[in-house]
Structures are given as C-alpha cells and as structure tokens.
Amino acid sequence: MRPLTAHIDLDALRHNYRQACRYAPDARAMAVLKANAYGHGSLECARALRDLAPAMAVACLKEGQALRDTGIACPIVLLEGFFEADELDEIITGGYWSVLHTHWQVEALLDRLERWPHHHVTVLVKCDSGMHRLGFAPEEVSAICRRLRSHPGVEQTLLMTHFATADTPDSALLASQLDTINTLRRELDLPGCFANSPATLSVPAARHDWVRPGVMLYGVNPLAPEQMLHGEIDRALKPVMTLESRIIAIRELAAGEPIGYGARHVTGRPTRVGVVACGYGDGYDRHAREGTPVLVQGQRAMIAGRVSMDMLTVDITGIPDADIGSRVTLWGRDASGAMLDVSEVASWCNTIAYTLLTGILPRVPRRYHYNDAPDDSSDTDALS
Ligand SMILES: Cc1ncc(COP(=O)(O)O)c(C=O)c1O
Question: Whose CA is nearest to atom 6 of ligand 1?
C-alpha cells in the first residue's frame, strides 16, 4: 500500500464543536460540513456530530442529500440556496433549510409552496451587510421577510449575513456590517444567524440565535495571529486531520547537486535527501516553497526542491536515524505528539489552511479514529 494517509480524529472534531458551543453559549451551532467537511469526509464527520449538532450546513442540495442518505435527520442548511426551482420539491419535503439570497428564489419558493399545502419550511434570508457577495441589500430585507412571514407555508424565517473580516475584530468593515445587521434584526425581531468561526470565537455582537462554525471544527485557528485571543484559541482547538506518509527512498548528494524538477534546489553542502510519497496529485500544494516544514519521525525538516505529482523531497541531513520507512507528517499531530500546524504549512505555500484541507484529493485514503463515539465503531477506513 502506498503509505500516504489522512488520519481524521473524530474525537478532536467533537471537542472543537464543543468549543464553539462554549464560546457562544446562548446560540445553537450549525456544523458547517460543506466541501466534504473541508476535505475531512462529510459523512463520517456528520455521523460523529449527529448527537451534538442541532443542524448542519452544506453548500447545496447534492451535498445535503449525501448526508440524508447516511441517516442524518436534523435540519440541513443549504448555504447557497437552490440553483433551479426543480430542487424545491425536495427542499420543501426533505427538511432542508434554504438560504434565500435573490428575488427569483423567493418567488420560486412561494410559488412552489402552493403545491405542498401541508408542508412548512424554514428559510434564511441573507442580507448583504457589506461583504458584497450574496444577499439582498439591507433596504430590501424588511419587505422580503414580511412577505415570507405572512405566508402560511413558511414556519420560520431567520435573518442571515456573512462577514468579510471577522478574523480581525477591530476592522471598520466588521463594525459597519454588525451595525447594519443588528439594526435590522432589532427592527424585524427575527432570529439571527451571522457568525462564522472567527466571529463565533471573538465577536460577541455577532452571536445570536445561531452560529455557523466551519474551519474551527477542523482545528484551524481562524483568528489573525496578532489578535489577542489567538493564543487562547490555539490551545482550545485540536487538529483533526493529520496527513502522514513515509520516506520511500534516500539520496546521498554531494554539494552542488540539483534536486527535482527545474533543479530549483541545488545542494549547498553534502545533503541527505528523503523522498516522500506525497505530491500535488494528492492535493499537497505545489507552491510549497524551499524550507516548507514537515516532521520526520516527529522532528522538523524542510522541503528541498519542487513538489512533484506523487513525491516530494526533504532535507534530512540533520536527522541521521531517518531511513526508508520513516514516518513523515505533512501536517497535524505526529504519533510522538509533535505538532505541525496546517496554517504554518499554508503560509509557506502562500495560501490558507482552508485550501490545503479541502484540496486533499479522493486518491488519499482517510482513516477515521473515534473513541468518544455516540454509537458506531471506532477506527474505520474510507476512500472519500
Ligand atoms: C455562508 C458561510 N457561513 C459559514 C461559513 C463557515 O466559515 P468558517 O469556515 O470561516 O467558519 C462559510 C464558509 O465559507 C460560509 O460561506
């Protein structure tokens, strides 16, 4: 077997979910499981959270159906709403809570509800409070909510927005978004659903009836490093994914020898190189710069040379007992307890942890570790 595996610690996922609840004790937390639970496997993550989370959120109906098919019974929120009116029969009858962010969706929903006189839906009306991605202009929201609330088929209307800069809580844009959305919430007297992970953790004025933590569930600290709470959050969260492989070959190179495609790295001294089974064909970022850290048997080492499709190369000169078969942790918690934060790796790749985690491809087997299980057995394998 090729030794590359993404180990998924479902106990850590549950721990992180509980942290979201601890920081927002008066709100209910919908677990954001879109994009295959940020690369971790949405079915397994949903099963692990089903006794804790009163709702789960995905991007679209197809992602929601996959959760329903695995027995998830709680409300499933569709964060982008629906793309075609034909999705509505299933949304209305299947316990999905759709976001409504555009006028044709409101018309299509109200029209389709006529066919289902005995069904009631919950909807989230999305206000564009300043991010300028999805949502109605603030001045449109009252009329839309009034129409929805007066319809007998609409059981519950939530007010929703999304923040552009919640990771920097002192930003002027966040203050302005909060002012807009909290004013509307007071005027309309509707339950609010505003906070992503950083807002859940550090913006009390954004936590109302519901919060929507995503990346923090997977153990990624969503706050900018200069934020006061950053260290506390680092300690509060546990990494969920550990990407682990092994050294499959060793090269002993003299000074002045190139390594890998484009000969980007030329050895400056006699160098021992470990070839690791992990590459961009697995989703590891090809933009990893010289010096990107990995752990070899729990000790830090650095990538030397370009990442190729199935392999990458690491300078192991300083780790003399490293050999063929030695364990290499690309990020996460090594078996020895040593940690390599996926956000640190991301910064070496000029990206963010979200893209590294969601980028791990189906080719990489996920192995699930699970002690604190509500029911299912522990330690299962899946190719997701
Ligand atoms: C609408 C919406 N809500 C919540 C989230 C969760 O955000 P985060 O992963 O930063 O917690 C996202 C993520 O992209 C989102 O698009």
Answer: 214
Tokens (6 digits) for 240: 């969920």
DSSP strand pairing (327-333 vs 192-195) = unpaired
153-to-28, 93, 146, 301 alpha-carbon distances in Å? 24, 12, 13, 60
Q: Are strands 192-195 and 154-160 parallel, antiparallel or unpaired?
A: parallel
Q: How far apart are CA 27 and CA 209, in angstroms?
A: 5
In the chain, residues under CATH classification 3.20.20.10 are 10-221
Print pLDDT tens along the chain (384 aa).
999 999 999 999 999 999 999 999 999 999 999 999 999 999 999 999 999 999 999 999 999 999 999 999 999 999 999 999 999 999 999 999 999 999 999 999 999 999 999 999 999 999 999 999 999 999 999 999 999 999 999 999 999 999 999 998 889 999 999 999 999 999 999 999 999 999 999 999 999 999 999 999 999 999 999 999 999 999 999 999 999 999 999 999 999 999 999 999 999 999 999 999 999 999 999 999 999 999 999 999 999 999 999 999 999 999 999 999 999 999 999 999 999 999 999 999 999 999 999 999 999 999 999 987 565 544 566 544
96 tagged catalytic: no
| Residue 34: active-site member | yes
Strands 241-253 and 327-333 turn out to be antiparallel
Fold of 10-221: TIM Barrel (3.20.20)
Classify domain 241-340 at the CATH topology level.
Lyase, Ornithine Decarboxylase; Chain A, domain 1 (2.40.37)
Q: Which atom of ligand 1 is nearest to the CA of 197?
A: 11
Which residue is catalytic, options 17, 23, 34, 126? 34
Strands 241-253, 271-276: pairing is: antiparallel
Q: What is the DSSP secondary-structure string of 317-329?
A: TT-TT--TT-EEE
Asked whether 60 and 77 are in contact (CB, 8 A), the reply is no
Cα of 52 vs centre of ligand 1, distance in Å, is 19
